[in-house]
Amino acid sequence: MRFERIGREPDYSRYMDLKEGWLDRRIFSDADIYEEELYRIFARSWLFVAHESQIPNSGDFLTTHMGEDAVIVARQPDGSIRVMLNSCPHRGNKVCFADAGNTRRFVCNYHGWGFDTAGELKGMHEEYCYDAGDIDYKNHGLKNVAKVGSYKGLVFATFNGDAPSLEAWLGDFRWYLDMILDNEEGGTEFIGGCIKSVMSANWKFGVENFIGDAYHAGWTHDSGCRSMNDGMPFPPIDMQNSYHASVNGHGWEFGTEGVGDLVLLGRPKVMEYYNKIRPKMAERLGEMRSKIFGSVASASIFPNVSFLPGISTFRQWQPKGPMQFELKTWVIVNKNMPDDIKDEVTKGVMQTFGPGGTFEMDDGENWENCTTVNRGVVTRHERLHYRCGIGRQIEHDTLPGIVYRGQYNDANQRGFYQRWLDMMTHDEFGKMPARPEPQLGNVAETRDLPGLFAL
Amino acid sequence: MTDTATLERPAVAAAASLELTHALTQTLYREARMLDDENYKAWTEMLAEDLHYHMPGIETRYRRDKTDQVTDLTRMAYYNDSKPEILKRLSRLDTGTAWSEDPATRYTHIVTNIEVEHTEKTDEFRVFSNFYAYRNRNERDEDSLIGNRIDIWRQTGEGFQLVKRRAILKHNVMLSKNLNIYI
Fold first, then answer.
1. A221's torsion region: left (phi>0), alpha (psi -120 to 50) or beta?
2. CA–CA gap between residue A220 and residue B88 (Å, rounded)
3. Which UniProt keywords apply (chain B) (predicted)?
4. 3-class SS of residue A39
5. Which of A51, A72, A146, B35 could form a disulfide with A161 if both were Cys (CB 3.0 to 4.6 A apart)?
6. Helices of type H across A3-160
7. What is the pLDDT of residue B95?
């Protein structure tokens, strides 16, 4: 499938110089750039669509968006998952109007065209109005996406038949992802429900905040931290033993003290729980990853998913125009946690990173103002500063990816915008440079890889 | 929580007297005024020590879908708080660094449709009401939060105290960037 638009071939490299460390503000509000992002990034990337635990049984479905395209994610009778446009091929109306549920059929309200959970057209109201040959049942179903993949519970889909495998897309970032997805036997699940809110801000501000912006936390969230911890200020940052790691636009910033994010959650029982399983986590993932998990950390998967390992909020920034996104938030927990710990995590997440959470409340206004103020016709031509830590790249013998020392850094943000530029520039995936070249090779399982070079 | 009256209304419930209804109506209005004035000290004094304050997240589901989105407390919720947890959230405002509350948000809470009933406990009353909570801040930020509440209020020596509240916000996608408000 090709995603071409006619008439515009702008040179996106003029919008940034990541070696110098600046960005052009227009990428946060320009309508043409936004349209091009929908084509070149959202229609071509692997996008998160569900956690497997949300649709465990045959006929379970949920609806979401890939970019601005409405899709249905449905569990099939054979246990596989299909993702298809939530749009009837007759006039384009929605065929599913619920956020989630269980069904045998998706039926359009307009003319009663009905589809099975795989999207195949099964019938319609007053079928006799069509003559033989008018309807090709095999080819008038709901358009399925090109590929669906699952990585340790997270389900991704892409409209792009030429996309690399999901494993290759995530690449060495899986070494990091396993800290949240596979830190205990049994894997993870989402707590029931999904909280959605709206911000009048560009989607990239949410992603770049979680991908690397530890720097804002101690200032923006001073009040949140103190409220959750009896007046205690933000945990100190150890610039020597904390890092940014970037892999093809995905990024994880983290300390190695093991407790920072768990402290911020403000639930002592959850801290106790992780301290109890930490020796096992070390056996499972190696010493280094068991020390990273729970530290002050945040992460994003390119292009628009973020989470806080230890705090357990999991979220997606859904683009709704250049100056608006919808934020979907979930709570991710280990499946084998006792119910009371799951409950503690859920309450902790909603008290910190729900819309009424003590941390969340101070983020939205910043991103909204960054978006609207950057749009001023004079303001938009001023560059933004992304140089923090630009000289601190290191080679690390355990950590895969492009690694920078010190978690107060813009390195992962630069890595994200580099990947953004790569995708906006290159027509073919094969021509996009790997950043960096994969170090783990074709391993299927990072659990056996405590450290890169400890093999 | 079995010690307090349930929020679920029995088939038959006795309506409260005019006097009691008036007293609780005034209590709800006073509570709304405390919230409008950001007088959280006075507001939290109106909250019982065994408070449960719940505002569930509501998904859009087909009518045939019997998923319990309201009373299943394991699901995601805007608020699912005890009194100490409410106090913890509020302590953010005392830090001096709650940036998104300075300049202050301007609030109006409108409370209507009040019905008061007796419960199985002689000192506890079930109170139904509707709310319209309006917020405006900075230049043109504004939003409206509308929904229903069911409360249990307990009569004490110093007036009524809120023991349970279930507030159902009618939004699916909350049309705001945050929820820096109590309802």
1. alpha
2. 18
3. Dioxygenase, Oxidoreductase
4. helix
5. A146
6. 31-37
7. 96
Note whether B165 and B47 are within 8 A (CB): no
Asked whether B178 and A355 are in contact (CB, 8 A), the reply is yes
Instruction: Please indicate whether the domains covering A47-149 and A172-454 agree at the CATH topology level.
Output: no
ipTM of the complex, rounded to two decimals: 0.95
- Structure-token pair, residue B126: 């079930």
Q: Which two tokens stand for residue A287?
A: 């010493």
User: B12, B120 in Cβ contact below 8 A?
Assistant: no
Instruction: Please state, in angstroms and rounded to a whole number, the distance separating the CA atoms of residues A225 and A235.
Output: 9
Mutate which: A189, A324, A361, A373, vs B, most B CBs within 10 A: A361
Amino acid at position A307, single letter: F
Q: Domain ranges for chain A, please list them.
A: 47-149, 172-454
Distance CA A71, CA A112 (A): 19
Tens-digit pLDDT profile for residues A250-299? 999 999 999 999 999 999 999 999 999 999 999 999 999 999 999 999 99
Looking at the predicted structure, is the pLDDT value of residue A1 above 50? no
Question: What residues 39-98 of chain B have any CB closer than 8 A to a CB of chain A?
Answer: 56-57, 59-62, 65, 67, 69, 72-81, 85, 88-93, 95-98
Q: For residue B67, what is the nearest residue in chain A, using CA coordinates?
A: A101
Joined together, the tokens standing for residue A58 give: 């045959």
φ/ψ of B73, rounded to 5, equals -80, -5
pLDDT recorded at residue B1: 47
Q: Which residue has the tokens 């792009």?
A: A160
Phi first, then psi: what are they for A363, rounded to 5°?
A: -85, -45
Average pLDDT, chain B: 95
Mean pLDDT score, B18-37:
98
Half-sphere exposure in the Cβ direction for A48 (13 Å, CA)? 26
User: For the residues A414-418, what does the mean pLDDT come to?
Assistant: 98
Pairing, β A105-107 against β A114-116:
antiparallel
pLDDT tens-digit profile of A285-301? 999 999 999 999 999 99
pLDDT at A455: 39
Q: Give me the residue label for tokens 């246990």.
A: A79
Task: State yes or no: cis peptide before A309, omega within 30 of 0.
Answer: no
Domain spans of chain B? 18-169
- What is the least distance, in Å, from the CA of A21 to any CA of chain B? 28
Q: Which amino acids of A are annotated catalytic? A: 111, 213, 216, 221, 363
CATH topology of domain A172-454: Naphthalene 1,2-dioxygenase Alpha Subunit; Chain A, domain 1 (3.90.380)
Q: Record the pTM.
A: 0.96
Q: Looking at domain B18-169, does it have CATH number 3.10.450.50?
A: yes
List % helix, strand, coil for chain B (3-state, nearest 5): 20, 40, 40
Of A192, A200, A355, the CB nearest to B179: A355
3-class secondary-structure state, position A126: coil
